[in-house]
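Subject: Protein record for review, amino acid sequence with backbone structure tokens
How to read it: Take the token row as a discrete description of the fold.
Enclosed: The protein record, placed directly beneath this head.
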Amino acid sequence: MTTTPRHLIVLGGAALALLPLSACTDNSPSDAATGAAGALTVAASDSACEVSAGEAPSGTLRFTVTNSGDQVTEFYLLAEDGLRIVGEVENIAPGLSRDLVLAAPPGEYVTACKPGMVGDGLRADFTVTDSGADLSPSGDDEELVDEAATLYAAYVKDQTEQLLTATTEFRDLYVAGDDDGARALYPQARTHWERIETVAESFGDLDPRMDAREADLVEGEAFTGWHRIEKDLWPEQAQAYVALDDAGRTEVADLLVADTTELYDRTRDMTFTVDQISNGSKGLLDEVATGKVTGEEEFWSHTDLWDFQANVDGAKVAFDGVEPLLRTTDAELADELDDRFAELQVLLDAQRSGDGFVLYTDLEQSEVRELSDAVNALAEPLSRLTAAVLA
């Protein structure tokens, strides 16, 4: 079996928003430093993001990120424009280390740590040099790679189509003052967003407008999108809340539909490679661990279990797409992941009510712990998925 990485990252041309790089703090390492064989370390703190090298050879890159700060942090590898996310690892608690593994062709990139998980982060330029390695798939692997990429691109297109239709219907109900209808559709429409959340998040300009929680906003950042409307639909959960008037409702709802349309347009020509798909599976489970299982995502509606299920749906679809390739390199890991997904799904199914789920506030603490334990049990083997499919 070849040890050279076989799967090349291809950034969908229509998905790249060519906007200026946001202002950032420079934490560049020495230009002379080069990551040996793609192995790099990142010393992250509340005020620094020190990558062990300013460049690395093309192929499989492994960034081992250690957080010595007091805040939870995230690490990103971004495209040269500083907006398109090539790979990310989230929820790195103080004192912990986590790996980002991905395949990268030659080119210019940007690294970023985000202490506190807000703002533009601490950024530096990063170069991937041409190692001369053949990164193209070969033989039977090429067929498996192509199939995974085709199926996942089709899935993203389908979910964005359904998202746009449901969001438009939701806008119409909300603007017309049909609050009962809007509340009923809210978690169902968001399911299509949550299933492809890591793809949507890769557009750094759209995601904050569409899905930012009020608690995550930085000073001066406008509160728009799904959660702005959620707060207005469940005002009894918000203290001293002043409801939006008709003009305010129309403004925020029209912006949400416009942004959803933009997301739809940008994803028409997106392409994916297996490391993007496998990292996307892991990223969706991270979304569960950092927002859904804590009950923080749907702060006013408490419809977190709809989001929880949708993230798991998306993670499973992504895993299913690369599983045939994984079985050529690590069948034992494939079996373990199948089992862990199934165990988590049993717990979610136990909380179903009608066509949806019970409210998150209806769960017993023991049930929340069970769900959290199942997420953690899946997260560990899922963190090994990308390295295994790139082996």
Observations:
- Confidence is low (pLDDT under 50) at residues 1-33.
- The two ends are 8 Å apart (CA to CA).
